[in-house]
Amino acid sequence: MAETHVANTQLSVRDLTVRFPTTRGTVQAVNGVTFDLAKGASLGIVGESGSGKSVTAKTLMNLLPRTAEVSGDVIFEGEDVRQLAEQGREHFWGVKMTMVFQDPMTSLNPVKKCGEQIAETLRYHLKRDKKSALAEAEDLLEQVGIPEPGKRVDQYPHELSGGLRQRVVIAMALACEPSLLIADEPTTAVDVTVQKHLLDLLDTLRRDRGMSMILITHDLGVARGRCDEIAVMYAGRLVERAAPDTLFGDSRHPYTDALLRSIPRIDQPSHTRLEPIPGRPPELINPPEQCAYAPRCRFARPDCLESIPQISGVAGMHEFACFHPANTDRGREALADNLAQGRTAAGLDVTDLGGPS
Amino acid sequence: MTEIQSTGDDSRVEVMVPDKVPDDGMVDDAVRKKLGVGFWIAVGWLGLLVATVLLAPFLPLDEPNKLGAGPARTGPSLDNWFGTDALGRDVFARTVYGARVSLVVGFIAIAFGMVVGGSLGLVAGYFRGRVDQVISFLFFTLLSFPGLILALLITSTFDRTLRTVSLTLGVLAVAPVGRLARAATLVFAEREFVQAARVIGAKHFRIMTRELLPVVLIPMAALALLGMGVAIVAEGGLAFLQLSVEDISWGVIINDGRGIRDLQENPHVALMPIGVMFLTILALNFAGDRVREFFDVRETAFQK
Amino acid sequence: MKQFILRRVAQLVLVVFAVTFLTFASLNLVGDPLFNIVGVLSGIPDEQCEAVERGEISDTQSSGLNMGDCALIAQAKEQNNLDKNVVERYGIWLSDMVSGDFGTSFVNGDEISDIVRERLPVTIRLIVLAQIVALGIAIPWGVASAYRANRGFDKVSTVGSFGLLSIPNFALGVILLYFFALRWQIFPSRYENAGWWSELKALTLPALTLGLGLAATYQRLLRTDLITTLQEDFVHMARAKGMSDRHIMYRHALRPSMFSVITVFGVNTGALIGGALVVEQIFSIPGIGTELVEAVLRNDPPVVISLISVVAIGFVLINFFVDLMYGYLDPRVRTS
Fold it and tell me: Residue A11 — φ and ψ, nearest 5°?
């Protein structure tokens, strides 16, 4: 699929699978995830907690616990990332590939000054001396739009607001001029009012520096305007991948479809009923050999319970893993059958919600 | 639990799942609620010790103070299991009789600490306010004396009978036990079952003894086992300062055998009782630790 | 913060009063200090001397007294303020103490301040060395066991620290003395001080005796705190910044994990002072503990009171400074 623009590919993930052995059984956290990311592009990974999006990011960053069993390939600028991890490669993570975490309240070391924490990266990886590292830190703080950077370098994290702290975290991540930034729900823990500013900042920085970015979020709306491509994950699998406009206008996977229906949209008449997704996310321990979404899916037919749907569709353009995709004839047929029976093959009661399907 | 929130301007879907992917490999090492084999071995050792002490008069042991129970300064043999000391006394017999004093001191001390410290802590935690301030200051002051110094002060001003030494060490136990009891009471006094008792108009004394005491006793039980070990060690320390009971205790025997010449020529006089003492403290600590874990008392409750 | 310090200082002063008064009162009420100065003469009932004073009887053989006995007693009482009640005497003692006059020994007339000046430094060196040994062992040990928690090394070290905690310090002292001083003769068996090197060698075994058990205490606390800290986001962040594990353990995780250790540091200094009494006996160290025990055994209340007060005040002060340490460890405490 990605072979068409391989020269331009920065990150290529192939069939990534992550399992955690526990005493209750093996947690299948990530299952055969495959995607490519072009240089300077941005990819949004959207999914619920437990969908495997954060585990995917942690795998890329070599942050998984030792007990994790990983298979598949992760190639970054021609280098095998998993091999680098095994060799204990230094000055790779934090330099070429960095990550911004969800909660700025806890992702800064409470006992170190902000400036020190940024300077530390520079000193550790680029062997700067203390003074120039601190000066650079101040400069970085200014770049991420922190007022009075000279004062902030000498402040402790707890003296700053959540929004400012997340900017410090971003400055820290940018210190060594990485070519890929992974942002794991960067705005979930900050005030709604500053979320947009932070996202715009990330976007601007990415464009200015020609950096690629993976934006992990549970929020389709966040990913929409800021990503070149959106990948939707469910129960450890990539279920749909497309450009934002395609995804929002012509989604295929019933899960994506349901997500879109559960958020308010400007183009719908006001008072349109928002539709919650019935049921709960599946157990990741010993899941049955069936479509993981089937129990919650309004389109589920008997074949959905017999095998796991594989990725299909137009490679590199619009891919999805579903036997009865929404907004297609097969999907409409399935829904009509289910409506006629009043329930899906998995036993979910369905009623007509109206609107296009 | 699936929960979907929507906010007006920016579309948000928040689906929260209680089950997160384990962050480290330890999630499943949840404490299996069992006291375990080690606990019963420890209890077995303590039981054996108590039985030996109780039966000592009926066992074929030498008089602990009999001179010439064997030739002086001999190593362990069939006749004298732990050998003999410089005066030809049988070290095994002395160790058994020493156990009596050490165990009695340890037991009385911790019992005193439990009764006095426990009541004070319970009262402080239950009534709070002024009462709590006064009692807490008392604990604070007691803890401001380095323990052994306080013991030395008391035994040097009074006498060195078994009773005085035991009660002295009991005084040392008051503050740590009291603090734990107070902390536990503060927590439990807020719980529904106590509130309920208050609502139906139960008397303070009744609430404290019937409702609070039983639950507060659980963490105290663990501390009691550990504290008994501490008291036995403290008695040994006093013996080294020649300020403990004028009788045979483990500390006294070890102190007898620690002279340079004794250590050079017949180290077993000191090392044998040290071994027995070590096993006993180990057993007490281990049992206490297991009890604490069993009832899931936080470790921090024992600090300070 | 200012208020916090003020409150702690007030508490500190109160405790110092309580401790010194308790010591003073117990030794003065229960013991008989007069006996130590005038010996058996202290047995002469007060009424008899009062009668002599009033001229009702004369202090001759017939009344069982010697010429001048009563005068001697009166002089001794006055010199040592024994004619006043305990509270008054405590007041006098305290004001003397504050002005640096510790009084003299009843038994040999030595200046107590000289005793303190001579003996205290040795004990302080011993205790400092013991703390250095304890922390020097506990920090790398705790880091190593928390790094791979519940794995091989950690499991072994849990057993090891449990064992160390169960050895009474006097027993450990005897064992170390036996093996390292007598059998293998690596260290001296008695205190000696011909220059700092010989003193350091002489204090090594005593410091190990005191420090090993403490190291186990610290290691357990540090391990627990570190395991908690290692689950913090900022540790993940540091890993994402590409820092090496060693760098993260020592530069990021260690300092925020030192709270429990610092908290018990003060309390354990008290335990060390008690332990020092015993260890000084075993290794014949001329520290304040040895002197204290001697003073107790020779029944010398002024020395006992002063030494206990010095030790107790020192202990309270250490705990006070430990509380201030929190501010350094966690800047959040400083501002709140």
Answer: -130, 135
